């Protein structure tokens, strides 16, 4: 780690213990087409349906998202760890190749929507705020799609994990 203060190291270690859904955030438009893996996604309100997404301002993709003004949050299934690694830049697969795979639909606003995502949330960036090294993007949703099957992929303790979906009858006790 490069010249981090102990408080920053402690914070990063603490956040590694906060399980979070793994998402591929995609965008397409005049600023280009891109996608990143992110766990910093959170609901804000349902009136209007709004979520927030945090993106590092030093990321090459940051300005693409802001320039396009729209994005899709694709919540990953447990069997999509390799895809998460590709979009996290952990492999040598180019952005162009990632979007050439036959796994995408074209959503509202021509956004790349992962066909097999547990959830896809398409929307417009309505506001953003710079906080430290990141931008917090507030996204008003225009389209929400969910699947009724599949297990979730979460990131916890710096590793990917599967969270199983329980049948409704299992929760009745």
Task: Please describe what this structure looks like.
18% of the residues lie in helices and 43% in strands. It has 4 helices and 12 strands; from the N terminus they run αβββββαβααββββββ. Mean pLDDT is 91; it is low at 169-173. The protein is of the alpha+beta class and 173 residues long. It has helices at 6-16, 62-68, 81-87, 95-100, and strands at 20-21, 23-27, 34-38, 41-46, 49-56, 70-75, 104-106, 112-114, 119-131, 134-146, 152-156, 159-163. The longest helix is centred in the N-terminal third of the chain and has 11 residues, at 6-16.
Summarize the structure.
The chain has 4 helices and 12 strands, in the order αβββββαβααββββββ.
Question: Low-confidence stretches at least 5 residues in length (pLDDT < 50)?
Answer: 169-173
Percent helix among the residues? 10-25%
Number of helices: 4
Total beta-strand segments: 12
* Overall geometry: globular
Strand order of the largest sheet: 3-2-6-9-10-5-4
- Secondary-structure element series: HEEEEEHEHHEEEEEE
- The overall average pLDDT, rounded, is 91
Residues in β-strands, percent: 35-45%
Task: State the major sheet.
Answer: 7 strands, antiparallel
**CA(first)-CA(last) distance:** 47 Å
Q: Helices and strands: which structural class? A: alpha+beta
User: Which value, in Å, is the CA radius of gyration?
Assistant: 16 Å
């Amino acid at each position: 780690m490069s010249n981090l203060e102990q408080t920053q190291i402690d914070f990063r270690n603490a956040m590694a213990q906060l399980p979070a859904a793994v998402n591929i955030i995609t965008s397409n438009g005049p600023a280009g087409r891109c996608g990143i893996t992110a766990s910093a996604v959170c609901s804000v309100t349902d009136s209007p349906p709004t979520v927030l997404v945090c993106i590092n301002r030093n990321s090459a993709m940051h300005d693409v998202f802001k320039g396009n003004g729209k994005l899709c949050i694709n919540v990953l299934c447990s069997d999509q760890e390799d895809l998460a690694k590709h979009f996290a830049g952990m492999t040598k697969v180019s952005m162009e190749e990632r979007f050439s795979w036959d796994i995408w639909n074209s959503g509202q606003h021509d956004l790349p929507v992962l066909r097999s995502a547990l959830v896809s949330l398409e929307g417009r960036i309505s506001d953003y705020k710079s906080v430290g090294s990141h931008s917090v993007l507030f996204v008003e949703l225009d389209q929400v799609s969910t699947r009724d099957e599949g297990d979730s992929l979460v990131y916890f303790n710096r590793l990917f994990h599967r969270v199983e979906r329980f049948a409704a009858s299992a929760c009745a006790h």
